Amino acid sequence: MPSQEYSGVGDALRAEKIAVEARTIDRPRVVEGSGRDKIQKTTLRGSAYCVIEIPLKWILEKKEDKR
């Protein structure tokens, strides 16, 4: 279980890996200007739920430095 849940308009997640589940997942689209990385964008609908499985590396490094 996640430690916190956010459900407000505009709340965002950023991570290396995010697990998602929803009733409907729109077709992925390649974001303009993404270049070689082929960054994709999609929308989850109906009881959408996301959990960060792997945080960004620099966030992990920050936490280790504080210890």
Strand content: 25-35%
| Sheet of most strands | 2 strands, antiparallel
Distance between the termini: 24 Å
> Into how many domains do the coordinates divide?
1
Range of helix content: 10-25%
Any idea what the shape is? flat
Count of runs of 4 or more consecutive helical residues:
1
Q: Write the H/E string, N to C.
A: EEEEEEH
Could you characterize the architecture of this molecule?
This protein has 67 residues and is α+β, with helices and mostly antiparallel strands. It has one domain. Helices cover 15% and strands 28% of the residues. It contains one helix and six strands, in the order ββββββα. The strands form three sheets. Strands 1-6 form a two-stranded antiparallel ribbon. It has a two-stranded antiparallel sheet with strand order 2-5. The longest helix has 10 residues. The radius of gyration is 15 Å and the shape is flat. It starts with 16 loop residues before the first strand and ends with a helix. 0% of the residues are buried.
